[in-house]
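task queued by scheduler; priority normal; single chain, no ligands, no partner chains; default sampling; output format set to structure tokens
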Amino acid sequence: MGTTAFTGLILALIGSVFAAALAGVGSAIGVTIAAQAAAGVITEDPKKFSKVLVLELLPGSQGLYGLIIAILIWVKIGILGDLTALTIEQGMMFLLAGLPIGIVGLVSAIYQGKVAAAGCLLTAKKPEQSSKGVTMAVIVETYALLALIASFFIWNGIKL
């Protein structure tokens, strides 16, 4: 494999790392924020565990979206089998494919964790309103889904 092909491959791998790592870090932070609020709620009333668990889990989805894009990149470049020689331009496209879900996943998961924490507080005071807290957190999810779609379309458009 020549220097150009190796550089293209490294760029593609960096794109996959951006997708998985940034979105994963965002999810870890978001889930932690929501979990702290959820723990406070179930300390006072353990029966509310299932209601706050849903809110705690929601910010974890961005990490999954990032991992999906990373795996798609790995499959397309042959990281799990025979490596594909990539031009620098192809490698850069893979890098760019990882950025939307990586960046938006990072930010949206953190903010979704904050919204989910607010939903936990809502559930603590008015358990019958917990679905409204879930709805508010899911609205933040929309932007992660849009980023996933953008990353997917960029990935899908790369011709090898």
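post-processing summary
- The domain at 3-156 is CATH 1.20.120.610 (Four Helix Bundle (Hemerythrin (Met), subunit A)).
- The chain has five helices and no strands.
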